Amino acid sequence: MRKIQIVDVSLREQAACNGSSLSFKEKIEVARQLDKLNVDAIETAPIVNGKNDIVFLHTLAPLMTRCVLACPVGLDPELLPDTWEALRVAKHPRLNVIAPVSTVQMEYQFHKKPPVVLEMIRAQVKACRELCEDIELTLHDATRAETDFLAQVIRAGIESGAGIITVCDTAGVMLPDEFNRFVTALNDAVPELANVKLSFEYSNALHMAAACIFASVNTGFAQIKTACSGMNEPSLRSIAHVFRAKGDALGLSCGLNMTVLEKSCDQIRQILSGRAEQDECAPASAVSGEVSFTLSGSDSREAVADAVKQMGYDLDEEALSFVCESVQRIAQKKTDSVGPKELEAIIATVALQVPPTYSLKSFVITSGNIITSYADVVLERNGAEVHGFDTGDGPIDAAFLAIEKILDHHFELEDFQVQSVTGGAEAMGSAVVKLRYENKVYSGKGLSTDVIGASIRAYIDAVNRICYEAGVK
């Protein structure tokens, strides 16, 4: 009896189809239901929203103690560090390198020639293997690729460290006997496939995905991609029914928990279909509508921790301390309280802070239309206060220059953005500062009830990342 691994890609497909993720709480609940179903791996959406996605995976990782947590990466090497940062805390992490291999996708969508794509695949798989032991190479539109090129790509992926090769009929145009012939010919052309796991990802465009997969029972495949949502992939429920009805006859088994199959699939579909209906009418909120609370500056650590749990987050003690400190600081400056949307912004900003080399103690800013702006900034380092004073073209420029006086170093400002997290006159501001150091960009984020305070905190956050990651003293 050959055991087949089941990978669910509902979270990945939901993000791709709707252009926006589920709320944090909804994504956690989908993952929990999939874990109850005993799927072998859960594949999330790629890291596209920076800290929000990283915090989500850091929260999800401790909950997934049995199944593999997989995250897609493309061929852009610059996106790999953030993806691994998000995934590395998982007990069973997997990096999935997704690459186009058909002429139409490579040249007209990816705008690269086949030899270039081949080398990019080789380099990305090798880079992933240096970080993680479990590497999957997913070949988009493989059934429409040139046979010789597809064989080259598979060999390159295996040689570079991929342990799973997933071939995709992305268009979903093959019939069962065609797909069987395709996979059989692929095994003959690339004998090295016998040394890795062969995986299928098949579009259900013709509603024949399950039939195509099981028609290839003799090809030695070891993994199937499914989706509880039943979007583009074969539905998890239909695949499970085939195993239950014909598994013994086919000599195949899987580890799915059939006793909770119907209930868990129904709950997941309800979450996903509910979000789809919202997306048709209005932009999805980052916070589930079921969550309702307010936090004040006098609330205890336990009250903040309870609100964090209501949001669906599971933070460690250090991250929770950062959140509590920020909640108290911001709430004390507002006449109203901190609500769910503000708390989620706080968590996304401070929960994954690096160990602070510098922390903000105080700042005084003087500015006006007839005087020169100046800033007096006090930071703390190793328990000692350090002062910086400077003038500039506006209050934020003066503050940044004052910090540079403290650091005795000039960093090139790559980008600077300020936006409102909430509405109203007392809206909480979020600032992003990107600093360039030795040809690498470091991003920092700050929150405050005023844009100057948010900007200073974002600058210090970026500096702390430079100190931590680049070893600057």
Q: What attributes does this structure have?
A:
single chain, eight-stranded parallel β-barrel, Double Stranded RNA Binding Domain, TIM Barrel, alpha/beta, three-stranded antiparallel β-sheet, 43% helix, 473 residues
Written description of the protein model:
Strand 14 (412-420) and strand 15 (429-437) form a beta hairpin. The strands form 4 sheets. Strands 2-3-4-5-6-7-8-9 form an 8-stranded parallel β-barrel, surrounded by 7 helices. It has a 3-stranded antiparallel beta sheet with strand order 11-12-13. The protein has helices spanning 10-18, 24-36, 51-60, 80-87, 103-109, 114-131, 147-160, 176-189, 209-215, 236-250, 261-281, 301-310, 317-331, 340-350, 395-407, 451-469, and strands at residues 2-3, 5-8, 41-43, 68-73, 93-100, 135-140, 164-169, 197-202, 223-226, 252-253, 359-366, 373-381, 384-392, 412-420, 429-437, 440-448. It has 473 residues and is of the alpha/beta class. Residues 275-289 have low confidence and may be disordered. The chain has 3 domains: 2-281, Aldolase class I (TIM Barrel, Alpha-Beta Barrel), CATH 3.20.20; 301-350, no CATH class; 359-469, Double Stranded RNA Binding Domain, CATH 3.30.160. 43% of the residues lie in helices and 21% in strands.
